[in-house]
Amino acid sequence: MSVENVNPDTAGKRISRLKSRLRAALIVLLLLEVGLHLIFYFTQDALLFHRVPITPATARDILTRNPKLRMLEMTAADGTRLQGWSAPARDIGQAAILFFGGNGDEISGTVLRVAKATGCAVVGLNYRGYGMSQGAPGEKQIFADALTVYDELARRKLIDPRSVILMGRSLGSGVAVHLAGQRPARALVLITPYDSVTSVAQSRYPFLWVRLIIKHPFDSLAHAPQLSWPMLMLVAGQDRTIPPSHALRLARHYGGTVTLRIIANAGHDNILNQQSLWDSMKTFLADNCAG
Q: Which of 15, 115, 177, 284 has minimal Cβ neighbours within 10 Å of its Cβ?
């Protein structure tokens, strides 16, 4: 039997080379991870806010085609000019809805659609950078503007704090929930809502430490247990943008009565085309907001 002699120097060099390669691989992985986090950090505004600006000419065309719409303008606390829309109630005495749109919505069409479907007066302001609203959107700015809009509409008597319904779709659901924690309302209506933008982003990007770098968390879950207004939650069963699990988590933590309706065949972008959504909304408003 022969025994192969292993040169200790050769073995040591092999181990050293292996350690160097492992170190280099770890450095590359670390740099890749840091790079991905930096990309997400600096692009998250564009990922979250899909601005839809319009020109004055487009606004005039919208008013010409929809004579029941009225354009609104007001000034935010920091001097930024905000623009939005209102549609009248079908009958005198109907409650008013304060509406907050999604992250890719110029809200004129939805304001008119909600008014026609419910018979309620509907008022809504475009977020900064949307419609003809000036400035750039962000969570702090949107939340502050929502308070300004609510207070100014109440001052103009376009909404009554004792009977106003706060309604939000997608991104706007978080705005409605936040506002409901700051001002009185008769009820909440949330369409394709979420527990938090942080949670949705973490589910979509599990390889990132989203909670450490998110700039706009829109944490509805933090406010939900303190709220007691009756709430209607309209969830798209086939939602791929905000999976239903996020809405269900919000519902479980809500402090008041929740009416949950899952529109089974609807997706995130077509839920407003489902008649069952409007039927559920009209029934909820009749039960909770009449008189």
A: 15
